[in-house]
Design a protein that fits this description.
Layout lengths: L3 E5 L3 H13 L4 E5 L2 H10 L4 E5 L7 H6 L1 E6 L7 E2 L2 H7 L4 E8 L9 E8 L4 H26 L14 E2 L13 H4 L2 H10 L7 E4 L5 E4 L6
Parallel strand pairs: 1-2, 1-3, 3-4, 5-8
Antiparallel strand pairs: 4-6, 6-7, 9-10
Helix pairs in contact: 1-5, 4-7
Length: about 220
């Protein structure tokens, strides 16, 4: 009887990864959940050994992490940019090169053993970055599944915790561009803010004199 692996993800690029690995690993069954409610129901009713979190935004209880092999995909060169909104924070910081990281989850934020890491470009529009994230992420999840298939478990390497940086998840109000921003920031910095906040994130905006919002979804700079 084939083992079933739980795949948790709802973002469009994570669903691309799901379809890729489902086709590439016919020796496993993959069960997809896309919401915390579905996750809670599925994890309580089934005896999964391996759980993949790919594009997941919700906190996982310690009991699950301690009883399963829980693997998370994080789009940053961990231990850098732990925490929420990693792609946005990297672009806003002027980063052009990043990474896709797969790690074995423990009870601290983005802290567990590194299983796999490879380059991700942060150049271009957000759609371009997500497309590459889907491709690179599929390679990473596949590498983790091959290790799991060969050994029946997962073992990684410790992160350099002294080099870690941590960021909080961004809030919609942080998408506003203020009048003073035009004199305090370069065109490239404002361009980065606009492209970092393209769909599906709360787009950058300016508030006009009547209180209405003008949303900025595309920009270019010279």
């Amino acid at each position: 009887m084939k083992e079933t692996i739980l795949f948790c993800g709802y973002r469009f690029w994570s669903l691309r990864i799901f379809r890729t690995i489902k086709a590439a690993f016919p020796n496993y069954n993959f069960h997809l959940v896309t919401s915390p409610e579905d996750f809670t129901k599925s994890i309580s009713e089934n005896a999964y050994k391996l759980v993949l979190f790919v594009g997941w935004s919700w906190i996982i209880k310690e009991g699950v992490i301690n009883s399963k092999l829980c693997v998370c995909l994080h789009p940053s060169p961990l231990p850098k940019y732990r925490g929420g909104s990693p792609i946005q924070h990297q672009i806003l910081s002027g980063e052009t090169d990043s990474a896709v990281t797969l790690f074995l989850m423990d009870n601290k934020l983005d802290h567990g053993q590194l299983l796999w890491q490879d380059h991700l470009s942060l150049e271009g529009e957000l759609d371009d970055i997500f497309h590459e994230l889907g491709d690179v992420g599929a390679e990473g999840v596949s590498a983790v599944l091959r290790q799991y298939s060969d050994t029946g478990t997962l073992v990684g390497s410790e992160q350099s915790h002294e080099d870690a940086t941590v960021f909080k998840r961004r809030k919609p109000g942080q998408s506003e561009i203020l009048v003073e921003d035009f004199s305090e920031h370069t065109a490239e910095e404002l361009y980065n803010k606009i492209r970092a906040l393209q769909d599906p994130y709360p787009n950058a905006y300016v508030i006009c004199k009547d209180g209405t919002r003008l949303f900025l979804s595309r920009a270019r700079h010279e």
